[in-house]
Amino acid sequence: MNNALVIGGTRFIGRHLVEDLLDNDYDVTIFNRGNHDNPFSDDPRVQHIQGDRKDDEALRTAKLTVEPDAVFDCVAYHPGDVVSAVDTFTDVDAYVYISSGAAYGTEEIPKREGVAQLCDCSDEQAQSDSDESYGPRKAEGDRVVFEAASRGINAMSIRPCIVYGPDDYTERLDYWIDRVLNYDRVLVPGDGTNLWHRAYVEDVASAMRIIAEEGEAGEAYNVGDQRLVTLREMVELVADVAGTDVEVVTAGERELAAADLSPTDFILYREYPHVLSTGKLAALGWESTPVEEAMRRSVESHRESERDGAEWDPGREAEERVLSILDTL
């Protein structure tokens, strides 16, 4: 297996996947609409086919042109996308679909593949683009993969939790890095022990390749950092690798409400712990990057970029009001 087709491949997970494949001697072709800058435009090792993955004819043309051994689907956001893909790539050695930890429909610790129940998905949700339908849509894509495998198609899926690292256009982690780099005191909602499993992007990329090489058709594989850190620990880790000192100040619902804030106004806060079991993936030979090193690379990337996470900013003035309230207690 050495010829890969990456559907997507230019933004975040797909970009790091292409780099991982190149590092492991794959011939790589990316297939996308060309709506985003192509970081591999000057790299002769990466071929590019322009087309819309929702156009079945374009997808078939890409397959006939590349004749891939492995297909990595980074931009299948609706179940119908997965249906088209598995019907197109019926004879490849591996089709790997990016699902999500959000596909799980029950709160369990940890969430295990084949044990924790997946979200249901209505016909309306399957066609939706809403944030609320994201988990159900990803779960239905998993079910398409399972059904395809029952027909002899070598399809499998990967379920990342919150993905972070260099080139993250969501800027979720960048909000917290920006706070650490620019303020002496960082406000963290709750008591700081909030736990939302995260996955370093380079580890997600290597996991996709390993699943294609070693995984079993019809199986799903969770991926996430093998060492979890709480929200408070994450902020402290950012400060440590950035070489700065910050005071982490925690605030409960009552203190936050005094400034018209709530815990969910802070990105990466989740009331109930979200933890994925990664033992099944590790059994294939996958290893995660130490979280300290992953965070160091993330902070370096942040400093070199213009990302600041402003989209997620609950308002520094409101935070300062909370900090003042806490100082008087």
From TrEMBL:
A Pfam family recorded for this sequence: Epimerase
SUPFAM superfamilies: NAD(P)-binding Rossmann-fold domains
Signal peptide start and end residues: none
Domain NAD-dependent epimerase/dehydratase positions: 4-224
InterPro entries named in the record: Epimerase_deHydtase, NAD(P)-bd_dom_sf
Similarity comment: family membership: Belongs to the NAD(P)-dependent epimerase/dehydratase family.
Name of the protein in its database record: NAD-dependent epimerase/dehydratase family protein
Taxonomic lineage of the native organism: Archaea, Methanobacteriati, Methanobacteriota, Stenosarchaea group, Halobacteria
